[in-house]
Write a structure and sequence with these properties.
about 350 residues, Transferase(Phosphotransferase), domain 1, 6-stranded antiparallel beta sheet, 15 strands, about 40% helix, globular
Length: about 350
């Protein structure tokens, strides 16, 4: 493995311990070391917290690239730990409070990304909810430094005990050589408004210097578009490999299934079952109703047999049949999202 950053503030014993943690995580295919507490685990990334023998509290961010598409993103780019460490150092140089990167270790195999390990200092926080004006003020400073963050949200900000906000989670951040142009600035403002500003006064973005008054209508329209695209993406996770779903392909066809639910019984049918599967997910995401289905098998056109929906044994087949209309209605709601993306000014867009 390549060590691309070793902080000068690390003691020899701390460095040896971090190297041991990285080796343990690599051997466990990206799992957190046993000495660390899980903060957030997803399919492609894990975040953990651990205390070194010296007493220093550190945060770890690990990535093992389990899916081909995740590895492909970094074939010609530096790995996530390297990118985030550089962003943190650049932010600190610009006077923005953020964690200090302590140690980075990465590995490629046959040029393919295989492992990414970042250790950072912990931020001392206080239990306080920042207001939207604080978010806007710090975001304006970020855009002035040339940092574009496509997914800026309240989870990126921490309230420090020393006062003010600190910024975390810069894996997707990108830098420009000059302050951001109006288009990128407006995209960041739209995402921030969508995640934390609704009902709190869009004029605060102007007061903080993040936007010009005449840009507000376009930013609010972009926030609506982002909301629609986000919901559509969450629904379509049922057809992808993600933290909640698994997608397996074979010569017979494709199996989509929930990771946390048994698939005990099946209901056979044609390709229309795909609408029911998407509708079931749409009920959960768009209508906040309980999903019913466990898996969907879509056979290949050359394969014998039929496609099938699967559901837990607790759900009787007759009840599943009665749910059909609700699933199809939810599928129509999903199609309305599709229409809103194609025609943002249409009825579907206004409903969203």
């Amino acid at each position: 493995m390549a060590e691309t950053l070793i902080s000068k503030e690390l003691q020899a014993e701390e460095l040896a311990e971090l190297r041991a943690w990285a080796g343990e995580s690599l051997a466990a295919r990206g799992a957190l070391p046993a000495a660390c507490e899980d903060v957030q685990s997803r399919l492609i990334r894990s975040v953990g917290r651990g205390r070194l023998a010296s007493g220093r509290l550190v945060y770890l961010k690990l990535m093992a690239f389990p899916r081909g598409k995740d590895a492909l993103r970094y074939i010609h780019r530096s790995l996530p730990a390297e990118r985030e460490a550089r962003s943190l150092l650049r932010l600190a140089a610009g006077g923005i409070d953020c964690p200090r990167p302590l140690y980075v270790q990465t590995q490629r195999r046959c040029l393919r990304p295989h492992f990414s390990f970042l250790a950072m200092t912990a931020i001392e926080t206080e239990e306080r909810q920042p207001d939207f004006a604080e978010y806007c003020a710090l975001t304006a400073r970020l855009t002035g430094l040339g940092l574009f963050h496509p997914d800026l949200n309240p989870g990126n900000f921490l309230c420090q005990k020393s006062g003010g906000l600190a910024l975390i989670d810069l894996q997707s951040a990108r830098w420009r050589a000059a302050p951001l142009a109006a288009g990128l600035r407006m995209r960041m403002a739209a995402k921030l408004w969508l995640e934390s500003g609704k009902g709190k006064g869009s004029e605060l973005m102007v007061a903080a210097g993040l936007l010009q008054q005449e840009q507000l209508p376009a930013v609010l329209a972009e926030a609506r578009r982002l909301r629609i695209a986000f919901l559509r993406g969450r629904v379509l996770r049922c057809l992808q490999t993600s933290s909640e779903f698994e997608c397996r392909r074979s010569w017979r066809g494709t199996m989509h299934r929930r990771r946390d639910r048994a698939a005990d019984h099946s209901l056979e049918g044609g390709r229309e079952l795909r609408q029911l599967w998407i509708g079931d997910r749409a009920r959960e995401i768009l209508l906040s109703e309980q999903s019913q289905l466990s898996a969907l098998f879509l056979r290949s056109w050359w394969s014998p047999g039929r496609s099938a929906l699967y559901f837990p044994k607790e759900l009787a087949a007759d009840r599943l049949s009665s749910e059909r209309s609700a699933q199809l209605a939810a599928f129509e709601e999903f199609q309305a999202l599709e229409g809103a993306i194609r025609d943002p000014g249409g009825a579907a867009g206004r409903r969203s």
